[in-house]
Design brief:
This protein is of the alpha/beta class and 453 residues long. The protein contains 14 helices and 18 strands. The protein folds into two domains: 254 residues, Aldehyde Dehydrogenase, Chain A, domain 1; 182 residues, Aldehyde Dehydrogenase, Chain A, domain 2, CATH 3.40.309. The chain binds nicotinamide-adenine-dinucleotide (NAD). Nicotinamide-adenine-dinucleotide binds next to α7 and α8.
Amino acid sequence: MSATYTVVNPATEQAVTDVAMASLAEADAAIERAAEAYPAWRDTAPGERARLLRRFAAVVDEHIPELAELEVRNSGHTWGNATWEAGNVRDVLNYYSAAPERLTGHQIPVAGGINVTFHEPLGVVGIIVPWNFPMPIAGWGFGPALAAGNTVVLKPAELTPLTAIRLAELALEAGIPEGVFTVVPGKGSVVGERFVTHPLVRKVCFTGSTDVGKKIMAGCADQVKRVTLELGGKSANIVFADADLAKAAAAAPSAVFDNAGQDCCARSRILVQRSAYDEFVSLLQPAVAGVKVIDPSDRSSEMGPLISAAQKAAVQGFVDEVEVAFAGVAPQGPGYWFAPTVVLADDPQQRIWREEVFGPVVAVMPFDDEAHAVELANDTEFGLSGSIYTRDVGRALRVSRGVEAGNLSVNSHSSVRYWTPFGGFKQSGLGRELGPDAPHSFTEVKNVFISND
Ligand code: NAD
């Protein structure tokens, strides 16, 4: 008998359903089935693989309300976010459905024959997903991996397995052959670690905490296993005095409180030029008070609860160490609710300034000039995303080049578009997902010389 995990609705604390957790033997069996399915999937004609991925996208599209509803109940995501997330899986599948027919190599001039390169798939790819964005992060892995001709085993987070389980059913319904895309719910220490140690898994694509990511990387070294890591963040939102301050202050809450701050790209440090600091803070206060923290299934909800009691306690631990400047409002009663919270920080050594809170808490600090802003922004081991608000194009360029982070936006907080590359500098990750090159990270380059003789 497999152990089970009781999935809880974080907005109500009510049990949703029990999910069977795979044992080591079940994880091995899933990996072996994926390895058996691999040769036929690899050899499926590019046009046919493309057609199947487009069909998978179409079936996801038909089930967007169902997937969104499942995510609202399982993860406490707002209805608007969850609908976007299901649509993102569809879009990623459609985008990478164009890849099988375009996975071209080079023809390189040589004497005595021809030289060509091929992008060969790896085999079985293991994808390990965290609980904060169960659908998009799964799709960013399995979309390009399947397109490149790999088969996939995917482990959702213990807390949030429901949409991944449903996506695997929809893949079968769309005609993706058995064993090509398998979801294996289970513990990180059992199923996740098995992806690292099983020799038939040729690449691990991990998104989660930096601590676990380091262990995965060390484990993969043993077999020189390919690995992509998408880890934590402590991103800066840098507001210069010449910026449109009203626009910057109005946008700042959603840049950090979206998904209740449980976002690796959350701009959880706001750096404001000293001459504009007081005005910015006075504009930020009503913007924070206005964030609508209500039942996530309500169509107008802007922020739901945290994922679990443990996450709420961890976030509270950060807030207990500091003085809260002002906060929004959140429901009382059942559910892991936490009001959007603002802290005015003055010491870059404070834990609230240095560590990823992964909750709706933002720290604001003044800076003196451009060099000081870049220095403060870079004074972290993380480097995932960030924003720069200024009307000066030259400054926008200089600061964008100066900040050590993988995904920056100017006068905007956007960070993830499926057709542009996404990933972290420093300890925020290794490798890139999404964008036109993602299928390459699920292949090996093979060079072949064919003699004239
Ligand atoms: P986590 O590291 O605890 O877990 C992530 C996944 O790894 C889960 O599926 C878990 O079961 C599994 N796991 C745990 N221990 C494992 C082990 N020893 N071997 C293999 N797998 C194991 O992270 P979390 O708490 O679920 O997610 C939050 C973290 O994810 C945050 O730090 C956040 O910044 C990060 N994150 C990063 C990105 C990004 O793209 N950079 C995106 C989303 C989340």
